[in-house]
From TrEMBL:
Native source organism of the sequence: Ruegeria faecimaris
SUPFAM superfamilies: ALDH-like
Active-site residues per Swiss-Prot or TrEMBL entry: 250
NCBIfam families with a match to the protein in the record: BADH, PRK13252.1
Protein name: Betaine-aldehyde dehydrogenase
Length: 484
C-alpha cells in the first residue's frame, strides 16, 4: 500500500508494531481506496508508550530551556524542508486539497515548533518581595506525562499544537491521532527524533476511542489535551477529573458571522467562504451561522453564488483544485443528511448540496437562505460544507441571537463602523473573535473556546500556563515566631 508507514506506533524513539490490535484502514477520501493499514494499540503497547514517556520526562525537564528549544526549532526547519512530502501524506490522509495542505498543515505545525522552541529558554518563575526581608520565588515546573488526543481535520497541526508547548515546558507526550487520519503524527515523531529529541519524549500510538480512554485514566498521566467533539469532550473531561488531571478541551462550535449593511460585501463574502468551505467545511471554528442584514441579503447571496461558481472541486492532488472530498463516507453522509433536514425544515437551498457521484466522498458546498434560529441546520454542528444564512434587522436582536447557542468557539463581524465592531466583539460569547476577517489562527494568538466549546487555550504564551505549574517557595530571612 502506497502510504504504509514502517509500523503503527512510535515509542521510545522508534517504530513499534503489534498487529494483534484492531485494524485501522486508512482510506483516501478522493477515491475510497485503502492506502495503508495500521493497528490499534493493545494494552501492552499503551503501557510501553506511557512507560517510555514517564522514564524520559525527568531528564528532558532537566535540560536547559535553550537545549529543549533548539530541538523544537530544528524540528520546525526539517518540517519546512519536507513540507511538500508531508503535505502529500496529509492530503491522502484527509482528502484536503494539496493547495491547502501546502500552506496550512505542516507549515502551521512548524510555526508552533518554532514559536514554542523560541519561548522555551525564557520560561521562568518570578521573585516576589515581602515585608521584613522575606521573599517568595516561584519555580515553573513541567506537569509530567501529557496525553494529546487528536481530531481528523488537522492531524499534523494538532500533533504539533499540543506537542510543541508540552515539550517546551519539559513534559513528555503520548499522542493518539484520530483513527481516521493516523499517518502524519508518526512523521512528527520521527522528525522530532531526527532533530535531537531524546527517546521517549514524544510517542505516538494509534487507536479508537477506547485507547484514548485508557490513556486519560492512567495514573502516570498528568494532563490531557483533547481536540474533538463536545460529546467526547464531556467524557474525557469527566474521566480526567477523577484523577484531578489538568485538561485542555478544544471542542466543536456553531459560530456566528454577522454582516452589517455597511460592510464591504466582497470581504464579507470572502470571510463567509473561508469560514464555511475551507477544508470542505471541516473546521471547528467555522462561522456556519451567517447573519446578514436584511437590506443587503439578496446582494450578499447573489455575490456569494457568483463566487461559488468559481469553486474548483476535484482531485485534491491537483494544485488548481480548491475544494476536495470530505474526510470519510460517514462524514459526507452526515452533511448530506443535514442538507435534507434543511430542505425539510423549509430553508431555501440557494446553492449546491448535491453529492458528486463516484468513489470519492464529494459533496458540493451548500448555501441555505431564509434559515431561522430553531432549525437543526442553525443549531447543530454539521462539520461539513453547509452554510446557513439568516436575516436580521437590528444590532440588539442579532447579538442576542448570535449568542443563543451552547457553543462559544469563534465569532466574526463585518462592518465599517469600528465602534460598533468593538461593541459587538465585547458582547460575543466566544473565545476567538474576528473583525472584518475570519478563521485565521496564527500561533502568536490564543485559540480556544468558551461555553461548551472548551476549556483552556492553545497557542500563544497562554499555552505555557496550560502545560506547566508553579511551585511557590517562601524564604524567611527572620526567626520563626511561634505562639508557644
Ligand atoms: N476547537 C478545536 O480546536 C477543534 C479543532 C478541530 C476539530 N474540533 C472538533 O472535533 C470534532 C471532529 O473531530 P472528531 O470527529 O475526530 O471528534 P471525536 O470527538 O469523535 O474524536 C476526537 C478524538 O477523541 C478520541 N476519542 C473518542 N472517544 C474517546 C474517549 N471516550 N476517550 C478518549 N478519547 C476518545 C477519538 O478517537 C479521536 O481521536 C468536531 O466537533 C470539531 O469541531 C475542534
Amino acid at each position: 500500500m502506497r502510504f504504509q508507514p514502517k509500523a503503527s506506533h512510535f515509542i521510545n524513539g522508534e517504530y513499534v508494531d503489534d498487529t494483534t490490535g484492531a485494524p485501522i484502514d486508512v482510506i483516501y477520501p478522493a477515491t475510497g481506496e485503502v492506502i495503508a493499514r495500521l493497528h490499534s494499540a493493545t494494552p501492552q503497547i499503551i503501557d510501553q508508550a506511557l512507560n517510555s514517556a514517564k522514564s524520559a520526562q525527568a531528564d528532558w525537564a532537566a535540560m536547559s530551556g535553550t537545549e529543549r528549544g533548539r530541538v523544537l526549532r530544528r524540528a520546525a526547519d526539517i518540517m519546512r524542508e519536507r513540507n511538500r512530502d508531508l503535505s502529500i501524506i496529509e492530503t491522502h490522509d484527509t482528502g484536503k486539497p494539496l493547495q491547502e495542505t501546502l500552506v496550512a498543515d505542516a507549515t502551521s505545525g512548524a510555526d508552533a515548533l518554532e514559536y514554542f522552541g523560541g519561548l522555551a529558554a525564557s520560561l521562568t518563575g518570578e521573585h516576589i518581595p515581602l515585608g521584613g526581608g522575606d521573599f517568595v520565588y516561584t519555580i515553573r515546573e513541567a506537569l509530567g506525562v501529557c496525553v494529546g488526543i487528536g481530531a481528523w481535520n488537522y492531524p499534523t497541526q494538532i500533533a504539533c499544537w499540543k506537542g510543541a508547548p508540552a515539550l517546551a515546558c519539559g513534559n513528555t507526550m503520548v499522542f493518539k491521532p484520530s483513527e481516521t487520519t493516523p499517518l502524519s503524527a508518526l512523521q512528527v515523531a520521527e522528525i522530532l527524533v531526527e532533530a535531537g529529541a531524546p527517546k521517549g519524549v514524544y510517542n505516538v500510538i494509534q487507536g479508537y476511542g477506547d485507547v484514548g480512554a485508557s490513556l486519560v485514566t492512567d495514573p502516570r498521566v498528568a494532563k490531557v489535551s483533547l481536540t474533538g467533539s463536545v460529546p467526547t469532550g464531556r467524557k474525557v473531561y469527566a474521566a480526567a477529573a477523577d484523577g484531578m488531571k489538568h485538561v485542555t478541551m478544544e471542542l466543536g462550535g456553531k459560530s456566528p458571522i454577522i454582516v452589517f449593511d455597511d460592510a464591504d460585501i466582497e470581504n464579507a463574502v470572502s470571510g463567509a467562504i473561508l469560514g464555511n468551505f475551507y477544508s470542505s467545511g471541516q473546521v471547528c471554528s467555522n462561522g456556519t451561522r451567517v447573519f446578514v442584514h436584511k437590506g443587503i441579503k439578496e446582494a450578499f447571496l447573489d455575490r456569494l453564488s457568483q463566487r461559488l461558481a468559481n469553486v474548483k472541486i476535484g482531485d485534491p492532488m491537483d494544485e488548481e483544485v480548491n475544494f476536495g472530498p470530505m474526510v470519510s463516507e460517514n462524514q459526507m453522509n452526515i452533511a448530506l443528511g443535514y442538507v435534507e433536514k434543511g430542505k425539510a425544515e423549509g430553508a431555501r437551498l440557494v446553492y449546491g448540496g448535491v453529492r458528486i457521484e463516484g468513489d470519492g466522498f464529494y459533496i458540493q458546498p451548500a448555501v441555505f437562505a431564509d434559515v431561522t434560529d430553531e432549525m437543526a441546520i442553525a443549531r447543530e454542528e454539521i462539520f461539513g460544507p453547509v452554510m446557513s444564512v439568516l436575516d436580521f434587522e437590528t444590532e440588539e436582536e442579532v447579538m442576542a441571537r448570535a449568542n443563543n447557542t451552547e457553543f462559544g468557539l469563534a465569532a466574526g463581524v463585518f462592518t465599517k463602523d469600528l465602534t460598533r465592531a468593538h461593541r459587538i466583539v465585547a458582547a460575543f460569547e466566544a473565545g476567538t473573535c474576528y473583525i472584518n476577517t475570519y478563521n485565521l489562527a496564527p500561533v502568536e494568538a490564543p485559540f480556544g473556546g468558551s461555553k461548551m466549546s472548551g476549556v483552556g487555550r492553545e497557542n500563544s504564551k497562554l499555552a505555557i500556563n496550560h502545560f506547566s505549574e508553579m511551585k511557590t517557595v517562601y524564604v524567611s530571612m527572620n526567626d520563626v515566631e511561634a505562639p508557644y
